[in-house]
Amino acid sequence: MVSQLAIDVENIGFRYPGNPEVSFSQLNLQVAKGVRFGLFGPNGAGKTTLISLMTGLLSADEGHIALLGQEIGKQKSGVNKLFGFVPQDFSFYHELSPVENLEFFGAWSGLDKQTIKTRTDELLTILGLNDVRNKQVQKFSGGMKRRVNLAIGVMHDPAILFLDEPTVGVDVQTGHAIINYLLQLNKKGTTLVYTSHQLSEAEGLCEQVALIDGGKIIAQDNLDTLLKTHNQDNLEQLFLNLTGKEYRN
Amino acid sequence: MFKLKATIIKDIRILLRDKVGISLMFIMPIILVVVVTSIQNSTFQLVNKNKLSIIINNSDTGQASKQLIKAINKIGMFKASQVSGDKTEQQIAEAMHQHDAMLGIIIPSNFSAKVAAKSKSVAGKALTSFGLQGDPVKNVGDVDPLTVYYNPILQDNIRLSVQGALRSALQLVESRETLRSLYFSINEKQLPESLENEMLNNKTAINEIPVSKDGTRTTPNATQHNVPAWTIFAMFFIIMSLGGSVVREKISGSFIRLKTLPTNYFVGLLSKQITYLVVTMLQAAVIFSMGIWLFPFLGLPALNLPSDVLALIIVTVVCGWCAVSYAMCVGVFAQTQEQANGFGAVSIVILASIGGLMVPSFAMQGFFKSAANLSPMHWCLQAYYTLFLEGGKLKDVINNIIPLLIITLLLQLVTFVGLKRKNLI
Q1: How close, in Å, is residue A241 to chain B by CA atoms?
Q2: SS3 call for B35
Q3: With a cut of 70, which residues of chain B have pLDDT below it?
Q4: Neighbours of B212 (CB within 10 A)
Q5: A57/A41 Cα distance (integer angstroms)
Q6: Which of A91, A93, A112 lies nearest to residue B256, judging by beta carbons?
Q7: CATH: 1.10.287, 1.10.10, 3.40.1710, 3.30.1380. Which one for B53-189?
Q8: Alpha helix ranges (H) inside B45-110
Q9: Domain boundary assignment for chain A
Q10: Per-domain residue ranges for chain B?
Q11: Where would I find the beta strands (DSSP E) of chain A?
Q12: Given a cut of 70, is residue A3 above it in pLDDT?
């Protein structure tokens, strides 16, 4: 049976080794296929931990996580082909050019030589990196590095794309271009799981959102429904209303 | 296979762009091997080829002291200059400094008289024991000692050699005097010179033949000693590039992404091992080539490769693999690049020291002699010395290769456990 869920997080529990505080207990989250899903929360709420669990970077102490019906951590090479990950940090080799990075990460994603070449040309054109395709990334601006980071994450055309603050520190133009590209990907069927602190940008991208705080999902629904239910005008107001205004560490 | 190839290409690209790493791996060992070989070659020349400068202060005017000086000159290991007159210790020190002498030998003023008296006494005793009428035996005191001043930098073994040579010269002088007295007492005429020479001069020749495992008779020189030793050092010094590379990858975001991709990180580790193993082979090829072709232009002895080239290749591959395994192990456990570089550099110097690269392991005592066996560099060096200095074959280095492989496998195992514990694989 083909799963209609892109992500199915079921009753997971997790705590970091050596840390008595429980990060998650009995946490559940379902994301349907093809949606643009936003996961938001204050600092230390557990967003990155949850994404790390969903991408297999961390293993849950209890419960199950399945991506498109395949359990994460059990069929590593199979399930890892299903998703792409764009971490917040620049996750590539700065000594290499965009082409060289894409060649390497393409091979590790299981693509053949011809597909790597085709996808590299395609992505560098779409993301405006063609002119600098053979220059070392370490000489690039922050915005260009973000685009390289994104290109590597979508190189193998994944069904699910996890994005951890993909536009942080970029100018308006680059941010706009990245969001537009993500919308195009979603139109082709890619499920987006997006996390960011730039809530106005997120409001334009996400159709479904979940707010997480203290290791718990405190709200999850269509963005419009949530705004109506809580009688708020925008995502930022909703966020402050549900998570409070005090500082978080 | 395609993934491995892509990873090796990536590693080579990164390595070629790491100019500092390449300098550390190639240029620094080249400088080191040239400098150390040049210095040690001068020492070899001093010890083996050059004569040792000495001064002789002879306060005696008799024949025995002249014979002693003649005998000292005849030994062949000294370049003697004579200074006359009674000298104080300070004056002797100044004279040694002026003549650039390592030793100053003082012959006491009554040397000849005492030697003659002692010889007569010994001859008298001998005649009495033969049942012949000799001069009445008088008890004479011992000959006053020779005093030898030496430069404190003179090595103990050289000083002992000098002492042996002086004793031999003294023995000759005393024996000559005793023989003359004996002859005169029996025949009442002087001992003929030809007979004296025949009796005293050593007629038995000593043939010195260097023996090596391959039957060649080349004497090892500073190049044969230093090139293999510093090649090993260079191989292990790849830790400065490889250890840092593992840490950089581990702490950079790229490692996070690699963990989410459908490829095991073993491919990455295998690629690094292959890439850096090739680097160690290149290091050996470059340093050996320098020894063969460049050293003669620098006035240094040329390197002679062992006759068993296959054994040389096998030993180099095993040494290289061990060096790579060590660097990877340090890289996996280090938290930062500074830790990897700092610990790496210091540990390599320590392993080189206890492994016999800086002080020969046969000269070590107690704990350090046993500790040498724990250093992979010790086994590398023993294997190379067997091939380069003793002309050994593959069968002769098996007992060095096996411990080296055991250490390498242990390092690989520790690396694997480290990766598992840190949830990196």
Answers
A1: 34
A2: helix
A3: 43-50, 133-140, 202-203, 210-220, 359-368, 423-424
A4: 16
A5: 20
A6: A91
A7: 3.40.1710
A8: 63-75, 89-98
A9: 35-49+75-243
A10: 2-44+219-421, 53-189
A11: 5-14, 24-32, 36-40, 62-67, 70-71, 83-86, 160-164, 191-195, 208-213, 216-222
A12: no
Which of A93, A107, A153 has its CB closest to that of B254? A93
pLDDT of residue B280: 94
Q: How far apart are CA A229 and CA A224, in angstroms?
A: 9
Tokens for B187? 């025949």
**Which strand (E) or helix (H) includes residue B378?**
helix B376-388
DSSP notation for B102-159: SEEEEE-TTHHHHHHHHHHHHHHHHHHHHT---SPP---PPPPPPEEEE-TTS-HHHH
Q: Are A8 and A54 in contact (CB under 8 A)?
A: no
What is the pLDDT at residue B206? 78
Q: Which residues pair with B80 in a beta bridge?
A: B54
Q: Which residue has the tokens 């991506």?
A: A67
Would the ipTM clear 0.85, i.e. be above it? yes
B49 contact A CB<8A: no
Check: CB of residue A146 under 8 Å from CB of residue A92. no
Q: d(Cα B86, Cα B15) in Å, to the nearest integer? A: 70
Residue pointed to by tokens 């290499």: A96
A162 vs A25, higher pLDDT: A162
Can you name the residues that pair with A5 across neighbouring β-strands? A32
Sign of CA pseudo-dihedral B271, B275, B281, B287: negative
Contact check, Cβ <8 Å, B10/A96? yes
Lookup: tokens for B60: 């005696």
pLDDT for position B201: 75
| CATH 3.40.50.300 fits domain A35-49+75-243 | yes
Instruction: Give A-chain residues touching B260 at CB under 8 angstroms.
Output: 55-57, 80, 83, 85
Binning pLDDT at 50, 70 and 90, where does residue A1 land? very low
* Separation in Å, CA of A153 to nearest CA in chain B: 8
Which residue in A61, A74, A80, A108 has the most chain B C-beta atoms within 10 A of its own C-beta, making it the best mutation to test that interface? A108
For residue B290, which amino acid is it?
Answer: M
CA dist B126 and B178 (Å) reads 10
Q: Which residues of A touch B262 (CB under 8 A)?
A: 76-78, 80-81, 108-110
Angle, nearest 10°, between helix axes B309-333 and B222-236?
40
Reading the block at residue B299, the tokens are 């006035």
How big is the A-B interface in CB pairs under 8 Å? 78
- Contact (CB<8Å) B254/A112: no
Kindly provide the b/e burial profile for residues B216-242, where b requires at least 16 CB atoms within 10 angstroms of the residue's own CB: eeeebbbbbbbbbbbbbbbbbbbbbbb
Q: Per residue in A23-41, pLDDT tens? A: 788 888 999 999 999 988 8
